[in-house]
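Lab notebook, bench 4. Still working through the backlog of constructs that have no structural model yet. Next entry is a single chain of 295 residues. Request: give me the structure tokens for it.
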Amino acid sequence: MNPSSHRSFSPSRVFALAWNTLTELTRQKVFYFLLIFALLTIGSSAFAAKLSFEEEFQMLKDVALGSMSIFTSLLAILATAMLLPKDTEDRTLYTILAKPVPRFEYLLGKLCGVLLLLAVSTLVMSALFLAVLGLREQSVLAETTAQLQGATPAELQIAIDGVKRSTFNANLLPGIAAIFIKSALLAAMTLFVSTFSTSSIFTTIVSIAMYFIGHLQSTARDYWLSAMDASWWTQAFLAVVALAFPDLQAFSLVDAVVVGSAIPFGIAIQTLMLGVGYVAVYYVLAVFVFAGREL
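Model written out:
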């Protein structure tokens, strides 16, 4: 076989790298995040039972989706930060690249492995959240039916429809999808940082700093640009920051989901495409830096 054929893109090699990465991460017990999430979700449900059903469902959605966003973000950063340093320390990296496997393929396999982990985690947390939400809906419906025994069928149906509108709505799916897209973006960003980092600790610190910058930049930008004396260099600096760091607030659709506001289809697609674009950009930057790195 021609050795150069090994250098062409191979989906099977990428899948093998991704699956191996997913297996390694699960062995490191990163799914403990799911246990904490389960405790928070069930605990908030028990506490919110003392509120009205509208407030109860809003609180449950706020706690569950907020926890899901935080945990998937942390999982993306921590899981990705340890990949390259661990492979370098175990000398697995040299074995893989000696196959030979192109460096861009190695990074793509690692990134896909983390994305699989994030997808599984998001699906499990979503299933748990929807299960708790569904159980609380059935409980509230039973209580509402018992309280309105003397009401007319029309009045009873209006009350039931009100409970169902407060529980499940079309915003849940795009809200959860935005959480996953943000975590995928953070994974790609952390992978890029790890290509020039010397340790997983440094990668984690830098990535967390970029996470906070991404969440605060929109607020800082609005504040500085609203100032009457905003100079051109201030605007130029803010433009550079906006280009270098993704605006993570653009992926925060939790508030709209909690209050039941409609998320326009165009906004949902725009958020999805923005996240995919950032993932692609950070992956290309990671490949560019990693290609010139001496191993």
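Notes after review: The radius of gyration is 23 Å. Residues 7-291 form one domain. Flag for follow-up if needed.
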